[in-house]
């Protein structure tokens, strides 16, 4: 048991893993924040998806007018969905990458660029900024994840 605990603390002593943990926590918190932004837009626009969510605005027919879609709510939801489609792969591939033994400077470059691209993507989606800003920020983040996946496969290829 003591050896097992010693091995688990060795991972946290790894600077690349600590960098991965830091930037993963940042992008996951950013993604979680999108839920709060969605709730804020639903409340301020009075646009709800479920009948029980309209209870504080009336009963019966008077509450039905709040069961609707709103372009601002849908924009936030699409941004959140895009986070799910991009941050989840980063978390998995980034972990494998961190464990594949990259140089700290290269790993930091990957993690920082991805994090910056996702934050920029969120602002580009919510403000909205004119294209190609959002598309470029998505492409940069996607490329970083692809680059890490390539490095992992190149390092551990066993076919």
Describe the structure in your own words.
- With 159 residues, the chain is mostly helical.
- The protein has one domain (15-44, 70-158): Four Helix Bundle (Hemerythrin (Met), subunit A), CATH 1.20.120.550.
- It has six helices and no strands.
- The chain has helices at 2-13, 15-45, 61-64, 71-99, 104-126, 133-156.
- Helix 2 (15-45) runs antiparallel to helix 4 and helix 4 (71-99) runs antiparallel to helix 5 (104-126).
- It is elongated and about 60 Å long.
- It starts with a helix and ends with a helix.
- The mean pLDDT is 92.
Helix- and strand-based class?
mainly alpha
What is the overall shape?
elongated
By CATH, the architecture is named Up-down Bundle
The unreliable regions are: none
What is the subunit organization of this protein?
single chain
CATH topology: Four Helix Bundle (Hemerythrin (Met), subunit A)
Rg: 20 Å
Q: What's the CATH H-level homologous superfamily?
A: Membrane associated eicosanoid/glutathione metabolism-like domain
Number of domains: 1
The percentage helix is over 70%
Order of helices and strands: HHHHHH
Quantity of strands, as a count: 0
Largest sheet: none
The helix count comes to 6
Strand content: under 5%
List the helices and strands and how they pair.
Blueprint: H1 2-13, H2 15-45, H3 61-64, H4 71-99, H5 104-126, H6 133-156
Helix pairs in contact: 2-4, 2-5, 4-5, 4-6, 5-6
């Amino acid at each position: 048991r003591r050896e097992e605990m010693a091995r688990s603390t060795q991972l946290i002593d790894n600077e690349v893993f600590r960098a991965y943990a830091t930037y993963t926590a940042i992008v996951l918190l950013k993604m979680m924040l999108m839920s709060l932004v969605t709730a804020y837009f639903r409340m301020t626009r009075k646009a709800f998806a479920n009948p029980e969510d309209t209870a504080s605005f009336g009963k019966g027919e008077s509450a039905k007018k709040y069961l609707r879609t709103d372009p601002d709510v849908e924009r936030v939801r699409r941004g959140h969905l895009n986070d799910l489609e991009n941050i989840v792969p980063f978390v998995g591939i980034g972990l494998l990458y961190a464990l594949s033994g990259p140089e700290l400077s290269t790993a930091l470059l990957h993690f920082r660029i991805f994090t910056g691209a996702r934050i920029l993507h969120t602002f580009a989606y919510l403000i909205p900024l004119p294209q190609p800003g959002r598309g470029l920020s998505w492409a940069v983040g996607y490329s970083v994840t692809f680059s890490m996946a390539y490095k992992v496969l190149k390092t551990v290829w066993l076919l």
